[in-house]
Amino acid sequence: MSEDKRSHGAAPATQASAQFLTFQLGGDLFAIGILTIKEIIEYGELTSVPMMPGAVRGVINLRGAVVPVIDLQARFGKSPVVAGKRTCIVIVEVQALDERQVIGVIVDAVNEVVDIPPEDIEPPPSFGARIRTDFIQGMGKVRGRFVILLELERVLSLEDRLPAEPAPG
């Protein structure tokens, strides 16, 4: 009888919401797609490695694998994260040229997993962002507040990663 008014100009029904993990970093709210996340671990002691870029805080032993740990705060050109009770390391897997690489990223606190439909994602701002705009995938709207959706592959770009080394044995 009546036409569905929502069908005009809306995103196609095949575009489902994407899930993102939200976290705090330096007073700002960020999010990364959950498909890149392997696990979240408690912040613990890191092993320093000489001659690493400033954002690389060290490495951890994760079930026998050496995993580099990046301080996102330092990567964004700010002072390094000061570890607190809720500080975590989010273990992610990202593409490094022809292979996948596991990297840990330090965050102040992990919040929650949220669904963000495509129509609630705005393009990154062209200026005024507190981090490089090429690090931003978009600005997601969650409960009336903007969340910075990170382009994790770019944030953890090749020049800031440790080269993958073969496992001993």
UniProtKB/TrEMBL annotation:
Gene Ontology process terms (BP): chemotaxis; signal transduction
Stored SUPFAM superfamilies: CheW-like
InterPro entries: CheW, CheW-like_dom_sf, CheW-lke_dom
GO cellular component labels: cytosol
A family per Pfam: CheW
Domain CheW-like per the UniProt entry, residue ranges: 17-161
Protein name, per record: Purine-binding chemotaxis protein CheW
Originating organism: Paracidovorax wautersii
